[in-house]
């Protein structure tokens, strides 16, 4: 088993070496080509390669994370890069180390809108200071001009801030994750449905901890303030709140400029803003479903059953219904349920539909047995290294 782990680590090294070389090539392409079709054609080989690389890995953790970081997020970032859009394309261009980190990792640099100045203050500023305001920051004391760099992205709702979480927050979740892994020793004595619920918390805690470690590492090396990838999804009060402001915010931020906004612009002139926004939501969930099916295929190497697709289509449709009802209700001043009630309803819907459509494909791919086996192999490998 330990020998297999060593072989997998070698494959992981080869895969990520290919990734670094590919991003180096993409960075050079950005220097020598204009944004648009020419740059897109030049980086299409990289995008194609990133769709193949996870097939060289068999570990659920290594393969799943590489597929998520590279086959999904990095490819979408490269598509935006081809057309001169953030997070990889700025004016002036970002440095190569920063380009590499933002491209490889699921991180998003935190935006700090500047205080509004009067026209006289703006005109009296030193020209060098004005130009500096439009540059990309290279330390945590610099400010990002969100309105100048990404006009498509709306400011975050003040009622749902994304504060930097304390170390205690992550420490508690790490302890809970450790307890969950220990509970699996008694899985034969636990009701299957209770075990499925534990799987949900396992996925959430593991994802948040891994992404937080990567974000903190980038923060340490470059001194940049990064936005948290999760915003306590267990406190969601609606599907709109869950998907848009709390769950896996990196995916939300990458799907907005790549899928939602282009679809909205496409249908806005045809069917009007209201209907176009609903169609854009459905399109976003369809793309998310396709990418999840792809990741599940990488993990299980089995033909998809499309249960995950139905999960996201159902949530996309229900989200559209929810938005329409809330808008209709606000206009007529309908009764608004308390947060505890709407939160309970949201959590129940997510868990029930997850039990029905999302979790079965993961279990079929061996999330439980293979995942626990990998924890055991990792423990044996670490013990062997420490004994040397």
From TrEMBL:
Belongs to the wax synthase family. Keywords: Acyltransferase, Lipid metabolism, Membrane, Transferase, Transmembrane, Transmembrane helix. The chain crosses the membrane at residues 12-30, 36-55, 62-84, 167-184, 196-215, 278-298, 310-328, 340-359. It comes from the Eukaryota. Residues 139-159 have a biased composition (Low complexity). It is a multi-pass membrane protein. InterPro entries: Wax_synthase, Wax_synthase_dom, Wax_synthase_Magnoliopsida. Residues 118-138 have a biased composition (Polar residues). It is found in: Membrane. GO terms for cellular component: membrane. GO terms for biological process: lipid metabolic process. This is Wax synthase domain-containing protein. Residues 227-313 form the Wax synthase domain. GO terms for molecular function: O-acyltransferase activity. The keyword ATP-binding does not apply. Residues 113-163 are annotated as: Disordered.
């Amino acid at each position: 088993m330990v020998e297999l782990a060593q072989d997998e680590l070698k494959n992981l090294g080869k895969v990520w070496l290919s990734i670094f070389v590919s991003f180096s090539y993409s960075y050079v392409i950005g220097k020598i080509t204009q944004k648009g079709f020419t740059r897109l054609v030049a980086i299409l080989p990289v995008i194609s390669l990133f769709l193949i690389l996870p097939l060289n890995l068999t570990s659920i953790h290594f393969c799943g994370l590489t597929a998520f970081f590279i086959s999904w997020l990095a490819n979408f970032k490269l598509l935006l890069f081809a057309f001169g859009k953030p997070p990889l394309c700025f004016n002036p261009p970002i440095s190569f180390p920063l380009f590499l980190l933002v491209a490889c990792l699921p991180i998003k640099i935190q935006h700090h809108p500047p205080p509004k100045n009067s026209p006289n203050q703006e005109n009296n500023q030193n020209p060098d200071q004005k130009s500096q305001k439009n540059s990309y920051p290279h330390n945590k004391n610099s400010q990002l001009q969100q309105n100048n760099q990404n006009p498509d992205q709306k400011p975050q709702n003040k009622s749902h801030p994304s504060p930097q979480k304390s170390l205690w927050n992550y420490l508690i979740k790490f302890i809970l994750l450790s307890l969950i892994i220990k509970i699996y020793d008694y899985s034969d004595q636990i009701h299957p449905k209770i075990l499925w619920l534990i799987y949900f918390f396992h996925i959430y805690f593991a994802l948040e901890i891994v992404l937080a470690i990567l974000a903190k590492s980038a923060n340490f090396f470059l001194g940049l303030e990064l936005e948290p990838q999760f915003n306590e999804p267990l406190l969601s009060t609606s599907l709109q709140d869950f998907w848009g402001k709390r769950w896996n915010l990196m995916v939300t931020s990458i799907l907005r400029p790549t899928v939602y906004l282009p679809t909205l612009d496409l249908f806005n002139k045809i069917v009007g803003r209201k209907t176009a926004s609903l169609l854009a939501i459905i399109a976003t969930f369809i793309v998310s479903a396709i990418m999840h099916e792809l990741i599940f295929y990488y993990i299980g190497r089995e033909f998809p059953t499309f249960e995950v697709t139905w999960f996201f289509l159902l949530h996309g449709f229900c989200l559209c219904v929810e938005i329409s009802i809330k808008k209709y209700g606000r206009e007529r001043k309908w009764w608004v349920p308390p947060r505890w009630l709407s939160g309970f309803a949201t959590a129940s819907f997510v868990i029930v539909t997850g039990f029905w459509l999302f979790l079965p494909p993961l279990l079929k791919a061996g999330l439980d047995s293979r995942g626990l086996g990998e924890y055991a192999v990792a423990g044996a490998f670490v013990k062997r290294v420490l004994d040397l």
